[in-house]
Design goal:
The protein has about 170 residues and is an alpha/beta fold. The chain has two domains: about 1-115, Glutaredoxin (3-Layer(aba) Sandwich); about 125-170, no CATH class. It is about 30% helix and about 15% strand. The chain has six helices and seven strands; from the N terminus they run βαβαβββββαααα. A hairpin with a 5-residue loop joins strand 6 (about 75-80) and strand 7. It starts with a strand and ends in a 19-residue tail after the last helix.
Length: about 170
């Protein structure tokens, strides 16, 4: 069995996915695991990435609903209790590795969340995607939103915020 873990650069959910996959594969010797960093939509289409992280089992994404487009974005998964997580639960991974097809069905909650519950794609312009990823990393690493300094650092390469934005001109400050 060949497993490819497809991730975007600095995906905050990669360590969780790798850890759960290692637990699900414990004791198995018939498996080869590769991690691939996907940078472009073209690469996502070629590999079949439906958000980060994506796990492919022998080239197939057992968690993607039919018709889910390729995407370079964050991906969300639901566990057995309907809670949203950044990686499949250990139980869902084990089911997928055993070839059970339950994962490919889309629930009403996922359908209402848009993009089949697989996450939202923030726009690239003005650094919004970089800021969005900084927010996700903050919650993944510290269970809290990052400070304004971290958000400004993420947006700075895109020329935002402009130099005229002083701390006293930010909403909620005086």
């Amino acid at each position: 069995m060949l497993i490819d873990v497809l991730v975007v650069p600095d995906c905050p959910n990669t360590p969780v996915m790798i850890e759960r996959l290692a637990q699900a594969l414990a004791g198995r010797t018939d498996v080869q695991v590769e991690t691939r960093v996907i940078d472009t939509v073209e690469q996502a289409e070629r590999w079949g990435m439906h958000g980060s992280p994506t796990v492919l089992v022998d080239g197939r994404d057992p968690f993607a609903a039919p018709g889910t487009p390729a995407s370079v974005s964050c991906r969300l998964y639901q566990d057995e209790d309907g809670r949203t997580q950044g990686a499949p639960s250990l139980a869902r991974l084990r089911q997928a590795l055993d070839g059970q097809e339950h994962c490919a069905r889309e629930s009403a909650a996922e359908a209402s969340a848009g993009r089949a519950g697989r996450g939202r794609l923030a726009p690239v312009e003005r650094g919004w995607r970089a800021v969005h990823q900084a927010v996700l990393r903050g919650f993944a690493q510290a269970d809290a939103a990052p400070g304004i300094e971290a958000l400004e650092a993420a947006a700075a390469p895109f020329g935002y915020p402009p130099a005229r934005c002083s701390p006293s001109s930010r909403p909620g400050t005086s």
